Amino acid sequence: MCGITGIIGQKANKSNILEMLDCQKHRGPDFTAYFVEENSVALGHNRLSIIDLSSNANQPFTSDDGNYVMVFNGEIYNYIELRKELQPKYQFRTQSDTEVLLNAYKEWGKKCLEKLNGMFALAIWDKKEQSLFAARDRFGVKPFYYHFDNSNFHFASEIKTILVSGVAKIPNEKVWSSFFTEGSYGLPNETFWKDIHQLPGGHSLTLKNNVLQIEKWYSFETRTKSLFSHFEKNEEEYITNLLLKAINLRFRADVPVGFNLSGGLDSSTLLALIDQQNIDKSAVEAFTFVTNDERYDELFWVKSMLENRPFHLNICPLSANEIPDLSFKMSQHQMEPYGGIPTIAYSKIFQAARQKGVKVLLDGQGSDEAWAGYDYYINNSQSIVQGVTKSPFRMNVLDTEFAQKSQKTIYEKPFEDNLLNLQYRDLFYTKIPRALRFNDRVSMMHGTELREPFLDYELVEYVFSRPTDFKIKNGVQKWMLRKIAEQFLQKDLVLAPKRPLQTPQREWLSEDLKEWVRAEVETLYANNWFNKNELETELSAFFNGDNQSSFHIWQWINAAQLLK
């Protein structure tokens, strides 16, 4: 896990690439380096050393023949198997997944992507062809942002790195308006800033002779459809083995590995599967956050799960008085709106992990989307998702012209089954892209790496392709996952209903942090996107008890901090 950046064009020079690298040095505090051919190409890398800690594995990494130079962010979990496949033809000088990846590209070209099991954003410069090839992993776990003005191409792991290169910070009003009116965070290729784009997950790009081409290299739809009629003799055993394999691969590291824990089924299943690994469990640290509010904290459940297990629990507290400083810091790392106080609380885990020397953490993200864990999946209805009795949006505070810039998001529906289309939307357009972006910035703020076993592509494809009654049976969601979990967990944990990750956000914003909230939102009064009087009215109503939803308040705080 690292930070990558680059410039192709006349602005490619040592000074510019160093400025970009300095902006994202938190992503890779262990080593920073660059490759430059003046006025042509500059590639930079901030390294967080995880596999092969020696200096031989530093990046930018050059191929043996000297033609290819690569910067790469992420991990190739199956690098050991790929190395064995490549060994007859290639001499390896490191034990790193980086060298395996570059040799795989030399051997198979862009087809190598199909062989990778991992999370990655990579960029490879071909000196002979004077071309750049870049790609992003299947689900977009690792980020790749870019700006192209038809003469210079800038890319980086974070938006603010693009901004320090001289690209103007201009709001993308369509995306901002859609955020306020329907809670959309934009399409997979969009950001909240004009002319700063994302390479979508499962896509690659080539840049040659100032021509940019983007193509989709991963067809989830085709792969899952091919599995619809495939059944193993013992489905439960097969899926259990996929889960165990996903965990095993993600324990590959030359640094300590820990895991995040909450009181839910996903987290407890993760714990149980880690408990099955052939590792020194006493050296594996567990982390959970608390807000010291018994209405929301899950410490009782977490401690129950860890009972009679050797993992040491680290409890990471968050208090209301930390929010003003931490929220602004988080905004500057995210550079786009993010998920409120729960995201800030989550960041305390990575801070504590780094302080203890734990560089790698696992968590349970991705289970709900693949195994159909959200309540609205039961009804298979798009209207259920958006149709709530008390809308979380306050469109009345918006200027009419600005509100009309929003565009109703239309999601692709590649499957005949509506449940599959809802799951597909959440995997590739809404919940997973949003959560992965939040989580990448949260972990990398503290120079730590987050791994998501439930997003192993072989596991997701197979589970997604199963019939509905594998996921929802007799009204019970994530049915097969619960059945598997029964092998390892107490019955009350297996049968526990889904509990969203909660903090006292409503209470803190309306009571403890009232004056801070008021000061932040008041900065929007002069912004022509908003109606000042309506903002004041809604803010007063919130402080006077209309605080069942605090989503709109957090939207405004995000905007206030990002638009300054």
Give a concise summary.
39% of the residues lie in helices and 17% in strands. By secondary structure, it is an alpha+beta fold. Helix 2 (79-86) crosses helix 3, helix 11 (341-355) crosses helix 16 and helix 21 crosses helix 22.
Outline the structure in words.
There is one protein chain. This protein is of the alpha+beta class and 564 residues long. The chain is built from 24 helices and 19 strands. The protein folds into 3 domains: 2-218, Aminohydrolase, N-terminal nucleophile (Ntn) domain (Glutamine Phosphoribosylpyrophosphate, subunit 1, domain 1); 222-390 and 406-495, HUPs (Rossmann fold); 507-562, no CATH class. Helices cover 39% and strands 17% of the residues. The protein has a 6-stranded antiparallel sheet with strand order 2-3-1-9-8-10. A 6-stranded antiparallel sheet has the order 4-5-6-7-11-12, with helices on one face. The two termini are 30 Å apart.
